[in-house]
Amino acid sequence: MRTKLHIFKEAAYYLSFTKAAEKLFISQPAVSKVIAELETIYKCNFFIRKRNNIELTPQGIIFLQYVDKILALYAEMEDRFLNPEKETPTHLNFGASTTVANYIVPKIMAAYKLKYPLTHFTVKSGNSEEIEELILNQQLDFGITEGKNTNRKLQFKNFIKDEIVLVTRYGNTMVKQGAVSKKQFIEFPVIEREGGSGTRKIIYKTLKKDGIDKLNVTMHLNSTEAIKNYLYHTNSFALLSRYAIQEDLQYHKLKTVPIKDLVFERWFYFVCRTGFQSKTMDQFQRFFLHNHNL
Question: Residue 196 class from Cβ within 10 Å (0-12 exposed, 13-18 middle, 19+ buried)?
Answer without folding.
Answer: middle
